[in-house]
Amino acid sequence: MELEVRHLRALCAIADTGSLHKAARQLGMSQPSLTTQLRRIEHAVGGQLFARERTGCRPTPLGRVVLSRARPLVVEMRALVTEARATAARADDGTPQLRIGSTASRAIPGWLRRLRHRMPGTETSLQMDVSANALLQMVAAGQLDIAFVHEVEGCPLRLPDGLRRRVLLDREPQFVSLAADHPATRKDVVHLTDLAEDRWMVDPTVDGEWDGLQRMLREAGLNPRVLHGDYLTAATLVATGEVVTVCQPTSVARPDMAVRPLAGDPLGVRLLVAARTTAELDAVYGELEAAYWEAAAESPAYQGWLLGSRPDTRPDDRPGDRPGDRPGERSTTPVPVPVAVPVSAPPPDLGPATSQDLRPTLL
């Protein structure tokens, strides 16, 4: 027997309710039928998925493994059907569509605002995902039109054949988020050694994040304790001083949480946009670029970094730490020098114009 989505849905229902009787009622079938179906599923996967106890059904170790893969598939299938129905309904009335997928970014609100202003008759949808690779695959499969993603340094993304891409920023430095009363916040730039005793937090489901953090800490000679969790939870733990975490430079500090550049910029990401055609990229890129630099201008820490207040060397200002440098020598690679250039006012509904264009320019 081949497993189908209905089988996975049944497993999730049994796990959620903890009872074959309740699960059968939720699924609209009889308990004997569900019991028979469960036996067939267990035979197909080669082992028992639930331990039957007097108090109900409890997933076995094999059951937990199967459920960890089944739940996302059930959710995705439900979303696929919902999206397909919505798409069909919009297609019937001839409304143009723009389906955007993105990893987390503070540029998203400004990007959508600008697109709405420039394309008022277009129905724009947004799908957020922690996996850049998953979003790129969705563009290739025709489920999305555009994907705005980040690629962690040293962890290249798998770009499907046939996609066109455009790099928004070749290397965006990653900053650190820490409690506002952390001793390291007394400095404008934090060295990794200042955080040697801290516990870090990372979301391992984000493509490349865990590998990037490990590499950064290893190169600094650090082996701190690391918690795994989502970044929404991380923000709460950072504010209470439980953890520190890598964050985007466009992040804005709060009264209980500070954002600081890391000395030497030891971790970076590349920001890129992908689509199936160059025309689709051209249609959205300008608005995204403007929105990104608007978000950058709203972050004091990133403004300071862009306007040249960052150090030239890696942690502890030691020569030779930069790739290609030897002790006593300086890198010959040109350093981006940001130039402040006035920008024109945006359309009326886009809020106040930013006073500076913070985009780095090689001089």
From TrEMBL:
Coiled coil: none
UniProt KW Nucleus keyword: no
Listed Pro residues bias regions: 335-350
Biased composition (Polar residues): 353-363
Keywords: DNA-binding, Transcription, Transcription regulation
Entry GO MF terms: DNA binding; DNA-binding transcription factor activity
GO CC list: protein-DNA complex
Keyword Transcription regulation among UniProt keywords: yes
Domain HTH lysR-type intervals: 1-60
Family affiliation: Belongs to the LysR transcriptional regulatory family.
Feature: compositional bias, Basic and acidic residues: 311-329
Region named Disordered: 304-363
Entry-linked Pfam families: HTH_1, LysR_substrate
Protein name: Peptidase
